[in-house]
Each structure stands twice: as structure tokens, then as C-alpha cells.
Design goal:
Blueprint: H1 4-7, E1 12-13, H2 15-21, H3 24-36, H4 42-58, E2 63-67, E3 79-81, E4 83-85, E5 92-94, H5 98-102, E6 103-104, E7 124-128, E8 134-137, E9 140-149, H6 158-178, E10 187-193, E11 195-201, H7 202-205, H8 209-214, H9 239-254, E12 259-264, E13 270-275, E14 278-279, H10 280-300, E15 303-306, E16 322-328, H11 341-360, H12 362-368, H13 394-405, E17 408-410, E18 414-416, H14 429-432, E19 440-442, E20 447-449, H15 459-480, H16 486-501, H17 513-522, H18 530-533, H19 540-548, H20 554-609, H21 615-646, H22 650-678, H23 689-693
Bound molecules: adenosine-5'-diphosphate (ADP) and magnesium ion.
């Protein structure tokens, strides 16, 4: 298939396909279910299943799977064949029932559940999410699904995302009706997730157990040439990478993913793919698909796609900017400053809600991107710090200031800012987009949340964004509904909220040391690591917040807290064990071999040239031998710490991993990197940064 419009979505059982294949009343009923989030009727499900199976088998599918998103950052699937024995006969027919479509029972006891299920009642169930489309990939019909426990608790990342989208829609509706529904009756969050990644040669990857086991290098001296020349960012794409990208685009287009932009990123071997934004639920599914198709396509090209946040020390890590906005049911972007005073007032109210939400819930936004891997990236001079702030651009900040003080705004167009009476000056998008160092930037008609890491599921930040903005809007709607003098009350409310929350607005350099000091003075949180951030998750007010909007029950929240703590400690301990193994099996022995070689040389030289010769070899020998001894001692320390960590309970363990295990790994790394620089390459057993970062042409 050469035509892209024909190729696009050809593997998706999308709206057009459903309309064409389903009887009208079934189609209508399905649409209504998808929109309301209600349960699918059984009679509808069986017709849909039959038609979906016909379509899928025409597209080469022999199996189906409920495709769900457990509390890992990836997806899970279990494939069942369509085959069914012919009653009374010998052959098989292809069958797919309504029940199989809408409901599955994976034996999922090995997936993370944070104590929600004991293994003796391990069954969870999956249910089709009809607001996302089924698709065929690798001979299997994929059915996007939620995953819950028998008692109905969410065990996945899709269920709370759907709940948060509903919560936000509910509160947006109340605000829109205050403004007479001119922009629509409700709205959906839209998301465009920019995906960064590294590509390296597979044969070299396989020689690095740290990459294979942990997804990142645990040691490695800096490459001779890093990203200092800025010659990789937007540079010409190498042929092998180009051919990977072309395949990737094709695969994604088939699956209906709106892959749009591709380019080289700042670090050598680093790249980015950005899609066109869509509704948050499908955007999340699509990002999961993008990550998995990226990995699979890389394999086909003899490459490996690294999605880790910090595969290499000293060059940029990978993020996943989460662009977020609100689109009304009549197609209006609610963060687009409007043309009329009323539209402007509405825009300012939504803007204020976001500012308030971010300020009041800095902890939750930080937690939404928290992982052992992202801790290496945040604040490392290529990514925003762990401090949450909002950048609005100078112009919008000035407008808010004028509003707050009740004075004339003296920008390009002078106006006395009176809400509901004035039209805002047009704010050109490029004036708001320049600050790339902000964790949360208003970029003209959307917000760009830049803290999420490349491997994260975007459901996490979006669950939080949707919920906290819903909460701010709820408070506003509670205050304004029934107001006798709407414009005056609106004015007061916005002013009051700006005064309360303006400390979160920061347009300067987020990477600078001064900002960390200034943020401290402003009383903003600076939760440097996941272990520091996680305890905030289960604070009473957060439990109440999620309950209020029916996003998480207390039990669900606590189970997630346990899972996140466990994930953090497990990742750190995995890394510690990998360092121990690589060092003891390969690094110390390699250094010893080199020591032996040096000894031989020194002896030979000395016997020929006298005792004073071979001074260089003697010096290197001394350095290698000192470092190696130091390293052996550091391994004992690291092993003791890793063992002690295992005896601790969840929060203590995470804190211990942060304050003892990671520093011990850092010390080991320093010694290893120093050795790598002086040991003869003929003895060093692992590909170096030079090899890895310049492996793809
Ligand atoms: P840049 O980051 O270079 O300014 P764009 O603004 O064009 O680039 O878009 C970056 C990402 O933001 C893209 O994935 C795009 O689809 C997404 N995006 C643009 N508008 C919206 C919106 N209203 N809601 C959500 N995402 C959006
Ligand atoms: Mg961006």
C-alpha cells in the first residue's frame, strides 16, 4: 500500500469501519456506551464481536488479546486463538463471543498489585474500553482494556485515567455553563506526548549487561566527543536511522498513530518522535504503542531502542514532554485566548485554575513523574529541576499582574484590565514558547509539562493533571454558581487566586542555582528524589482529593504508593547487583590481567635496561593496582548495603536505597571510570561510550 492516507489506520477497527460493518442501532448504542463510560450491553457486544472478528481475520488475525496497562510502565497481553471446535464435527471454526470481547480473566497474580490481592484470590479481570479502538498487530486482534481486581479496584493505569477524564469533564461543564455554554457543554483533555529515545547497535548492546538488565550504563568514562559541539541536535539523520524511522512511521500510521515530527536530539544517537495531539485516553494508548513499535522496529534493523531516562552519564537524558490542553465538545481549545471579553474572562479563569492546581499540588505533579530512572534526569542540566513551577511568558505574567493590582497593562496594547469587559491583547505563541527550562510552560494554547521521563506511561502525569485541575475548577464553580454579580465576583476570585498562587510563576532559567534558592524562599517544594517525594502521595488531603473526584479510593492510592516504593527500591537494587556482578566478574579481573601484563613488561625492561627503567609502566601499575584494591573494597561495601536494604520495609528501604545504596554505586562508578581510562583497551571487556554512542551510521 503506497498511499499514506490509505495506509493510515488500515490496521484499526476504527469509527469508519464500525459504521460500515455494524447495524445502525448497534453502532449508535456502542457510541453512546463509549461516551458515557457505562457497561456494554451483552447483545450489543455479541454483534460487535462477530463483526470485529470478521474484520480482524480478513486482516490476518488468528488470535485476540485484551491489551491492558498494569502498574508497570508497559502493557500486558495474553493471546487466545479464535479457533473453536465444530460441534459434533472434527474441524474448527473461528469464533469470538461478546463475552470474550468485553471481559477477560487473565491469571495476573504476578503483576504488581501493592497488596490489593492475595495470591489465593489472584484473579483480576480485564474489560474492553470501547472509547479506544481495537487494532490488529502481528496477527493478533488487540482490544484496549482496563484491568481491575474482583472487588472492582483498579489495578492498572487506564482505569484512573478514564475516571480523571470524567471528573475533569464534569467540572469543566459547570464552568462552561456559567459562561452560557458559548464554547460548548463539556471538554476532554488533549495530549501530545513527545517521545525521546536512543538508538544503539544491537551487537554492542548485548555486550553490556547493565544495558540489557537495567536499560542504562552503570559506568563508562565520558566519550572523547560528547554533545559539546551541538552538532547532533536537528543534524542530518544518518541513513540507518532514517531507514528505521521510515519503517517506524509506516507501522505507526497503520495503527492510526499520528506520528508527525522526527529529528535528532541533543545527545549523539538520541532522537525524538512527536505525534499530533488527540484525546488523552487514546493518546496514552498511542504512546504505549509507539514505545513498543519503536522497540520492535529497532530489532528489525539490528538496533536497540533505549527508552531509559538516562542511558549515558554526561550527555542528555530522554524525556517525554506532555503537552496538555482542553478541547470542548464543539472543538474549542479552552486555553486559546479568545476574541471577546467573555471568552477572555473564561480563558483567564481556566488559566487561573491551572496555576492554582499546580501550586497546590506540586507534590502530586512531582510524584506523577517519579521513578528511579527519572531521578537521574531531573535537575541534571538538560531537564527541569525537581522543583515544580509554571512559566507563562513575560506578557501573560504582566497581564496577570495588572489584573491583580487593578492597574493598566502597558504592553504592546495598553488596556485597563477588567475581566469580562476587555479583550486581551493577542499573545503571539513564540513569545511564550522560549523558556525551555521550565517544568511546566504555557505555550500559547496548551501547557507543556516537561518533567515526565521517556519511559513513563503518560497516564500518570495526565491522571494528576486532570484531577488537580478538576479540583480547582470545582472550587471555582462552587464559588461562582449562584453569584448575583458574576463579573464582579469573577474579578475578585481571579485576583484573589493570583495573589495566593503567583509564587509558582517563574519565567527565568529553571536550570540555574539561583532558582533553587529563590524557590526555597518562595516556599516551593524541592523533592529531589522519588524516595523524598512518595510519602506525600498518601497525605490526608491527597487521599481526600482523589476520593472527592472518584479517581482513586484510599485503598487504591495506598496500593499504588506501595508499588511505587517497591519499584524504586527494586530498580536501585537491580542496578547494585549488576554493578557487583560486572565488577567482580569482569572489571577487577580485566584490571588484574593488565597488571600482570605490566609486571611482565616491567620485568623484561628492567632485566635489559636496568632497575630504573619502565618508570611509566610502574606508575600505571601503581595506579591500576590502587584503583583495583579500592574497587574491591567498595564492592564489599556495596554488597553489604544491598543486603541490608533487602531486610527493610518499603519506605525505609526506599530511603536507604537513596541515601546509602546509590551513593555506594556512585563511588564504585568513579573508581571504574578511572580504571577504564588507564587500562589498555585490549583488556577492557565492555564497549565504551565512544563505541556505544557512535555505533549507528
Ligand atoms: P513545539 O514543542 O516545537 O512548540 P508544537 O507546539 O507544534 O511544537 O507541538 C508539540 C506537541 O504538542 C505536539 O505533539 C503537538 O501535537 C502537541 N500539541 C499541540 N497543540 C496541542 C493541544 N491543543 N493539546 C495537546 N497537545 C498539543
Ligand atoms: Mg517540547
Amino acid at each position: 500500500m503506497d498511499s499514506i492516507p490509505e495506509l493510515f489506520g488500515s490496521a484499526v477497527f476504527g469509527d469508519e469501519e464500525m459504521k460500515a460493518r455494524l447495524p445502525k442501532e448497534i453502532y449508535d448504542s456502542l457510541k453512546a456506551t463509549a461516551e458515557s463510560g457505562a457497561r456494554l450491553r451483552e447483545d450489543v457486544a455479541s454483534v460487535v464481536a462477530e463483526k470485529m472478528k470478521d474484520w480482524a481475520t480478513e486482516h490476518g488475525a488468528t488470535h485476540f488479546t485484551h491489551w491492558f496497562q498494569p502498574m508497570t510502565n508497559i502493557t500486558a497481553e495474553k493471546h487466545d486463538g479464535f479457533i473453536s471446535p465444530v460441534k459434533g464435527g472434527e474441524g474448527v471454526i473461528m469464533r469470538f463471543s461478546g463475552k470474550e470481547l468485553s471481559y477477560g480473566e487473565p491469571d495476573a497474580s504476578s503483576l504488581p498489585n501493592g497488596g490489593l490481592r492475595n495470591t489465593f484470590e489472584a484473579r483480576g479481570y480485564t474489560a474492553w474500553d470501547p472509547s479506544s479502538y481495537a487494532f490488529v498487530k502481528d496477527g493478533t486482534l488487540y482490544i484496549p482494556s482496563v484491568f481491575c481486581s474482583y472487588s472492582g479496584e483498579a489495578l492498572d493505569k487506564k482505569t484512573p485515567l478514564l475516571r480523571s477524564i470524567q471528573a475533569l469533564g464534569r467540572e469543566v461543564s459547570r464552568i462552561l455553563s456559567l459562561f452560557g455554554n458559548a464554547s460548548g457543554r463539556t471538554a476532554t483533555p488533549t495530549v501530545g506526548a513527545e517521545q525521546e529515545y536512543f538508538l544503539i547497535d544491537k551487537s554492542l548492546y548485548l555486550k553490556r549487561p547493565d544495558l540489557v538488565t537495567c536499560g542504562r550504563t552503570l559506568f563508562g568514562a565520558p566519550p572523547t566527543k560528547g554533545q559539546e559541539l551541538h552538532d547532533h541536535y536537528f543534524g542530518a539523520i544518518k541513513p540507518r536511522v532514517m531507514s528505521f524511522m521510515a519503517d517506524l512511521d509506516k507501522e505507526l500510521w497503520k495503527l492510526g498513530v499520528l506520528a508527525k515530527t522526527k529529528h535528532n536530539e541533543a545527545a549523539p544517537s538520541q532522537h525524538e518522535l512527536a505525534p499530533i495531539f488527540i484525546g488523552a485516553n487514546r493518546a496514552n494508548d498511542h504512546n504505549q504503542l509507539t514505545m513498543s513499535v519503536m522497540r520492535a522496529t529497532a530489532e528489525k534493523h539490528g538496533l536497540v531502542c533505549l527508552l531509559h531516562e538516562k542511558p549515558f552519564k554526561g550527555v542528555n537524558g530522554s524525556g517525554k514532554h506532555n503537552n496538555w490542553s482542553l478541547l470542548s465538545d464543539t472543538g474549542v481549545n479552552l486555553f486559546e485566548p479568545g476574541e471577546t471579553p467573555s471568552e477572555n474572562a473564561q480563558f483567564l479563569l481556566f488559566l487561573t485554575a491551572v496555576i492554582k492546581a499546580v501550586d497546590e499540588h506540586q507534590d502530586l505533579l512531582r510524584i506523577s513523574v517519579a521513578s528511579a530512572s527519572n531521578d537521574h534526569r531531573l535537575g541534571a542540566n538538560e531537564a527541569p529541576p525537581a522543583i515544580v513551577s509554571v512559566s507563562l511568558g513575560e506578557e501573560l505574567t504582566e497581564i496577570l499582574r495588572a489584573l491583580e493590582k487593578g492597574v493598566t497593562y502597558k504592553g504592546r496594547k495598553k488596556i485597563q484590565m477588567e475581566i469580562g469587559a476587555d479583550v486581551l491583547p493577542k499573545i503571539p505563541k513564540d513569545t511564550t514558547d522560549r523558556n525551555r527550562t521550565s517544568p511546566f510552560a504555557f505555550t500559547g494554547n496548551k501547557f507543556e509539562f516537561r518533567m515526565p521521563g521517556s519511559s513513563l506511561s503518560v497516564s500518570d502525569p495526565n491522571i494528576i493533571l486532570n484531577t488537580i485541575v478538576a479540583d480547582a475548577l470545582k472550587e471555582f464553580a462552587d464559588a461562582l454558581e449562584g453569584s448575583a454579580n458574576f463579573n464582579a465576583d469573577l474579578n475578585d476570585l481571579i485576583r484573589r487566586e493570583i495573589v495566593r498562587h503567583k509564587r509558582i510563576i517563574f519565567n527565568g532559567d529553571g536550570y540555574s542555582r539561583e532558582w533553587a534558592e529563590e524557590a526555597k524562599k518562595r516556599g516551593l517544594l524541592n523533592l529531589a528524589t522519588t524516595a523524598d517525594a512518595l510519602p506525600y502521595f498518601v497525605k490526608d488531603e491527597n487521599i481526600e482529593l482523589f476520593k472527592r473526584h472518584h479517581v482513586f479510593t484510599e485503598t487504591e492510592l495506598r496500593s499504588r504508593y506501595e508499588i511505587l516504593l517497591e519499584n524504586y527500591s527494586t530498580s536501585v537494587l537491580f542496578e547494585a547487583l549488576t554493578v557487583l556482578e560486572m565488577t567482580r566478574h569482569n572489571i577487577i579481573p580485566a584490571a588484574e590481567e593488565y597488571e600482570n601484563e605490566l609486571c611482565d613488561v616491567i620485568m623484561k625492561k628492567s632485566s635489559i635496561l636496568g632497575e630504573d627503567s619502565a618508570s611509566l609502566e610502574r606508575k600505571i601499575l601503581k595506579d591500576v593496582s590502587d584503583l583495583n584494591e579500592k574497587l574491591a573494597a567498595l564492592m564489599i561495601d556495596l554488597q553489604e548495603k544491598a543486603e541490608r536494604a533487602k531486610t527493610l520495609s518499603s519506605l525505609e528501604k526506599a530511603t536507604y536505597c537513596k541515601s546509602e545504596v546509590r551513593p555506594a554505586m556512585k563511588n564504585a562508578r568513579e573508581a571504574i571510570d578511572a580504571l577504564e581510562v588507564i587500562v589498555d583497551a585490549a583488556f577492557w571487556r565492555f564497549p565504551t561510550y565512544n563505541d556505544l554512542l557512535y555505533s549507528v551510521n
